[in-house]
Design a protein that fits this description.
By secondary structure, the chain is α+β, with helices and mostly antiparallel strands. Helix content is 23%, strand content 45%. It has helices at 2-35, 148-151; strands at 43-46, 49-55, 63-68, 71-77, 84-87, 101-106, 109-123, 126-136, 144-146, 154-159, 162-167. The chain is extended, with a radius of gyration of 22 Å.
Length: 168
């Protein structure tokens, strides 16, 4: 009898652990989707142009998944950035070559960056080639700023909490 009670107690504990694990996964997914509601940005064709709509996240930013040289990345749209700004630590992973260095004036001060060119950048079905970028040693891993070197190649409009990107 004591053996059955012990077994029942362990089954109860195991059920609680499994339940807590499932809740953690569920809430992590909910929080991630609030940070980046555009994990799979939807594309549509309108009048021969490709359009992607990005929903604003809870902090009021536009964050979306995309690719650089066929490697999945997450972008933060930044109209104040002249070029795409990529953490220098991601250079090899993204297949980028560091070119000449220059000083860049950022929100965190002046930093020395290396110029580079992205062969292919995608957001949804929008595909751009030979995009100017810089490798910034001051950016944390994974934080890629989608700057004006991309946005000037697109028509972009903000409507309520949506950013609409459209090929020219």
């Amino acid at each position: 009898m004591s053996n059955e009670k012990s077994m029942g107690k362990w089954m109860f504990v195991l059920a609680w652990v499994c339940g807590l694990g499932l809740l953690t996964l569920l809430f992590t997914d909910v929080l991630d989707s609030q940070q980046n509601p555009n994990r799979e940005p939807e594309s549509m064709r309108i009048d021969g142009q490709t359009e992607v709509r990005l929903k604003q996240n809870r902090q009021g930013h536009y964050v979306t998944d995309g690719t650089i040289n066929n490697t999945p990345v997450t972008f933060l749209v930044d109209t104040g950035a002249t070029d795409v700004a990529i953490p220098a630590s991601m250079q090899r992973k993204l297949g980028l070559n560091a070119g000449r260095t220059a000083l860049a004036h950022t929100a965190n001060g002046t930093v020395r960056v290396a110029r580079t060119t992205i062969d292919t950048l995608t957001i949804g079905d929008i595909k751009l080639h030979n995009v100017k970028a810089n490798l910034n040693p001051g950016l944390p891993e994974g934080q890629i700023l989608l700057g004006m070197s991309v946005l000037r190649q697109l028509e972009f409009t903000q409507r309520q909490d949506w950013l609409i990107l459209r090929t020219l």
